[in-house]
Amino acid sequence: MRPQPLIAVTDVEASSRWYQRLLGCRSDHGGREYERLIWQDQLVLQLHSFEVEHHHGQIGDPTDRPYGNGALLWFEVEDFDAVVQRAIEMQVNIVKPKHRNPPAGDEGGPNHWECWMKDPDGYTIVVASPDGTADGRWRPSR
Length: 142
Prior knowledge:
Number of domains: 2
Distance between the termini: 25 Å
Radius of gyration: 16 Å
Order of helices and strands: EHEEEEHEEE
Helix content: 10-25%
CATH topology of the largest domain: Signal recognition particle alu RNA binding heterodimer, srp9/1
CATH class of the largest domain: Alpha Beta
Shape: globular
Largest sheet: 4 strands, mixed
């Protein structure tokens, strides 16, 4: 099984550029109505215009804010510090700055770094380093 999340957005092309810049992924479709974003040939996110219905009907209600209330889009990234730096450069709204999960001293849990932020539509995005990376011993596989 592979998750293939889809979110409704107000501007597909702008959101596509935002996610591509932040996460280093690339477009696999492009367009004003729908986008597929991939990383290393794997689909990581789909973007769909609120305004377009196609054969399936409207994806979401653009007046029902906040978008994604209670849902988080979570991305594990090997270049965590670089992604956080890009978020800062992009002046992304950071909700929870870089922090360890679980907090230092707690046992168990993923032992990774996280940073929570908002995308252009207000969805909460979490970038996280791979599990086990917060202790300083982890190195990416080559």
